[in-house]
TrEMBL record, chains A, B:
Domain Acyl-CoA dehydrogenase/oxidase N-terminal: 41-156
Residue ranges annotated for the Acyl-CoA oxidase/dehydrogenase middle domain, each copy included: 162-269
Cofactor(s) listed: FAD
Keywords for this protein: FAD, Flavoprotein, Oxidoreductase
Acetyl-CoA dehydrogenase-like C-terminal domain boundaries: 465-591
Domain of life of the organism encoding this protein: Bacteria
InterPro entries the UniProt entry points to: Acyl-CoA_dh-like_C_dom, Acyl-CoA_Oxase/DH_mid-dom, Acyl-CoA_Oxase/DH_mid-dom_sf, AcylCo_DH-like_C, AcylCo_DH/oxidase_C, AcylCoA_DH/ox_N, AcylCoA_DH/ox_N_sf, AcylCoA_DH/oxidase_NM_dom_sf
Keyword Iron: no
Protein name per its UniProtKB record: Acyl-CoA dehydrogenase C-terminal domain-containing protein
Domain Acyl-CoA dehydrogenase/oxidase C-terminal: 280-448
Family, as annotated: Belongs to the acyl-CoA dehydrogenase family.
Keyword Flavoprotein: yes
């Protein structure tokens, strides 16, 4: 297994040099998050991920979770690691101090989550789902619910889940069948089956708090008739737990990857539940935390891509095979290390360009999350909310698709050894493969971006973002080194608006045009977004080099990777643009039954 | 698991209507391969694959092969299926009648192999490797070796392997360490360790015949000092087996996929071996069968893509989720089948366009294989050999990369269920993932295409192929329906030559330009090649429709898929072209140590 080493240099580059998190934290009143404090947290977090989580990643995959009579046992070391995580205060890092949290910025929490998932994606699911439940209760719970549940979730004594999917529906939550019948005491009896429930049952915590979507007896049909309920595994009693609730784990799934994450079938047999938020507004409650969760899911692409890259670079330097086409580079050895071969470098640089570009995208977006949560200015908050709404589906889908490409390349660098489980490279592919699927498939993200966000706002959300790029290009149009790249970005930025208009016009006549264009439109958008971020990074690196500041090799590498991105990855926009412009006819003309011919 | 149904209609379309195999077989004197006989063989082969091999595919993946004290047990049903396969005469279908084979054309053998691998890729490895060993012995063995080994391999009583890779070398066979010491009796004592040996040990056959690359004591360094040896598990005795040889299976690998294929570490401890072919010419012996083996490996992309497509189409018609954007299509149901959604169709059509295009590429190439083997005309044979040399790396790499994309899309169509092992869709991804790696990684194929084949022949091999396309485009330039597509193909065909010239010029100054361009050049070539084949298929379909012959829905579907290919997949050439033109600087400028920064 590639040993994970947290990329602290690259993290610091983004937060200190590119996005100036310290200024942002100060402006947002996050006074605890001083540069020293942030540095200490990152280093301590890195240590935990490298030393505790990374070593149990491979073994967790081989052991998988075990189910027996409703009891789920996690792989060796998982429970202990969770205890250490809680003990270290990591669970409540970005949580509300009113309920026991440390109140640090969400962006910092996300960076810690990045390290956690890079080291051990399966393990990351347990705190990850808990954070989702915490957000929901924080946003929609009553004060009593917060005191009862949020404090214990923050403490890490209890963990949480999100129970949405049912056997017959995932994307289409309007047709869920789980029922909630009001009881005399104000609670509800919840009955139904939920599937794909991550961390639905396990042995890490005293109690598990399920957030369950269900329908009231008189609920309107469709998505407007869904309510959200808190259904704890054990009913709370005093400071701890009381009676066991009528919720149980019927089985766990056997999956392609994230095998140490318990994916549960949860049976609710008249379980006691408590309404959270307004009746029939359950889906809205879910949506309020979607941006955060989807950004987190998007980051999995980055996390596993990073882990894979680290393994691939080490291997490419160690493995001796063939001579360089330009003559031996290690004449004293039987062959040259494979990093001398251009095609191996193509793979490594593709991974590197995606990872570092995706990290920039994630951190830029996380900064907007902080602003949306904390800014005093309503205008700033709205601007940040708009950027978040626009960038979230791109983060989720582009980062997971490119992350999957990265993990596949990392495996390819290993040749036949990449296919052998022992090396750990293929696990990263399998663990990553769920990310383009869950938390809304990438196809759904694409519809969200193009249909709901871009066209649904009459282009306003797109313009809010392309305006940033436009201003950047204007300001840097004469940059002595990056003039050509700036011009290319400006050209694509303008094309982006024009392409959107074309699709919008076509969609007015035929709504299928949106679905036909969506996925390629999203990928196209992602490549342009990363081009902007790569230039922003390159400008900083160039300025540091000019000023003779800091580690010149690091900055030179940034410049070279940016160069690679513009020359070899950005041209993919052309294929996506053509696919968008192809329209829906070539997809819709065939009757469904012809597909099987 | 998606139940495999052999796509006989599509197979017949290609062999009867597009490539006219009957005429080709007649011209090549393959008089046994009458249309009736071919039809009967295909139907019987389909039945075997559907009823015997497909049902043990999922269970084989879950059981995996088991190793204990050097003995390997294959999953339940594997041994029995092999007995049925041998009993049915499938093993010797395309083998030389002089040694017990049926002497049918190789192209027909490849179609049967396609069905076998589509139904069960792991199982397909056992006869697949046997066929490889048979080819080698047929081409290079003495008459005595053929009588001893080839007859029993053809009979299916014995199976074969190819032992090339060692722990420290795969691509770079020049540095192998396995040694062959001449013995007084004319045999050799073989010592060394080989890894990744498919079918190296198992319980299906009485004996296993290893073809082993090793070095003689006085061998020159590098690839010119490698010899090939026959090393049987049991030494032959009379009509059967005698003494056990000093070769043993040290362990089997735990892999990402093809888990029911035994991938063995083979230890040779002074085992008795027999030289096959000339001393120090072992690599040449291997190369003579590379085209065949690489075409077969390329077909795995098609096979697993086809299996995945079949599952995905069924699911897309069954699964109800959301309403069509243009209004309900199944108003009596709670939601519409997901095949109404344009993005689901995009995924299905991408798979379909790759699968059917790849099948056309494979069958066209297989036809050249027949000509190269059987034609009376030296000129025809040379032309076929040249086409084979050129197309083989494209088949291997393009078909496996696009096949991997197809299996990933098939899994994506299933949403969360695609990630669950029970459904079998993720297995197809895992089983496919080895194909871009083994039998020469796709990076090596790309170097073979651009460096060895195209530039190495001063463009001759490329021109031999683009000439075919050029003639086709000239002939169809005014086609009333396909004029635009023909023009687009002609444009790309010309660009292909120009692009090649550019790379060739650059490579004269800097050999790294070849490696830098190779992979994208290969993919670019693959897309253009498939465009030609798609147009050829479309022309046939159009002609049949015009003539009112046959199944119009089938032909309409061909036309629609061709349309999709040109509009949505062929534009990817643009991204690959740009990457090729980017040159090597953006790959090579960084010192190796900077990659880890």
């Amino acid at each position: 297994m590639p040993e994970y080493k947290a990329p602290l240099r690259d993290i610091r580059f983004l937060i200190d040099e590119v996005f100036d998190y310290p200024a942002s934290y100060a402006a947002l009143g996050a006074s605890d998050a001083t540069p020293d404090m942030v540095a200490a947290i990152l280093e301590e977090g890195a240590r935990f991920c490298e030393q505790v989580l990374s070593p149990i990643n491979r073994s967790g995959d081989e052991e998988e979770c075990q189910w027996r009579d409703g009891v789920v046992t996690t792989p060796k070391g998982f429970k202990e690691a969770f205890a250490q995580y809680v003990e270290g205060g990591w669970n409540g890092l970005a949580a509300d101090p009113a309920y026991g949290g440390q109140g640090l910025p969400h962006s910092l929490g996300l960076i810690i989550s990045e390290m956690v998932a890079s080291a051990n994606q399966s393990w990351a699911m347990y705190p990850g789902l808990t954070h989702g439940a915490m957000s929901a209760i924080h946003a929609h719970g009553t004060e009593e619910q917060k005191q009862t549940y949020l404090t214990r979730l923050t403490e890490g004594r209890w963990t949480g889940t999100m129970c949405l999917t049912e056997p017959h529906c995932g994307t289409d939550l309007g047709i869920i069948k789980t029922r909630a019948v009001p009881q005399a005491d104000g609670s509800y009896a919840i009955s139904g089956t939920k599937i794909f429930i991550s961390a639905g049952e396990h042995d890490m915590s005293e109690n598990i708090v399920h957030l369950v979507l269900a329908k009231l007896p008189d609920a309107p049909a469709g998505t407007k008739g869904i309510s959200l309920f808190i259904v704890p595994k054990f009913l709370p009693a005093g400071e701890g737990i009381g009676e066991r609730n009528a919720v149980s784990c019927g089985s766990i799934e056997h999956k392609m990857g994230i095998k140490a994450s318990a994916t549960c079938v949860m049976n609710f047999d008249g379980a006691t539940g408590f309404l959270i938020g307004e009746a029939n507004k359950g889906l809205n409650c879910m949506f309020t935390m979607m941006n955060h969760a989807r950004l987190g899911t998007g980051m999995q692409g980055l996390c596993l891509g990073e882990a894979s890259y680290q393994g691939a670079v080490r291997y490419a330097n160690d493995r001796l095979q063939m001579r360089a086409l330009t003559g031996p580079k290690a004449p004293d050895k039987p062959a040259d290390p494979i990093i001398v071969h251009p095609d191996v470098r193509r793979m490594l640089l593709t991974m590197k360009a995606f990872n570092e570009g995706n990290r920039a995208l994630a951190y830029f977006t996380a900064q907007q999350l902080d602003i949306a949560h904390r800014s005093d200015s309503a205008e700033q908050r709205e601007e940040a909310e708009n950027l978040l709404a626009f960038l979230t589906p791109i983060c989720k889908a582009f980062m997971t698709d490119s992350g999957l490409e990265a993990t596949n390349l990392g495996m390819q660098v290993f040749g036949g050894h990449g296919y052998i489980r022992e090396w750990g490279m293929e696990q990263l592919v399998r663990d990553c493969r769920i990310a383009p699927i869950y938390e809304g498939t990438n196809g759904i993200q694409a519809l969200d971006l193009l249909g709901r966000k871009v066209l649904g706002s009459q282009g306003k959300l797109l313009r809010g973002f392309t305006k940033l790029i436009h201003k950047f290009c204007q300001a840097q149009a004469e940059h002595p080194r990056f003039k050509a790249q700036v011009a290319e970005l400006a050209r694509l930025n303008q094309q982006w608006g024009e392409l959107t208009q074309k699709v919008g016009m076509a969609a007015m006549k035929n709504p299928d045009e949106v679905g036909a264009a969506a996925l390629d439109y999203l990928m196209y958008s992602g490549y342009i977004t990363l081009a902007w971020l790569w230039l922003r990074m390159a400008l900083v690196a160039e300025a540091k080099l000019q000023a003779g500041e800091g580690d010149s090799a690091y900055y030179q590498t940034k410049l070279a990777t940016c160069d690679f991105y513009f020359k070899r990855l950005l041209p993919r926009t052309e294929a996506h643009r053509a696919a968008v412009e192809a329209g829906s006819d070539c997809l819709m003309q065939l009757p469904a039954e012809n597909f099987a011919l």
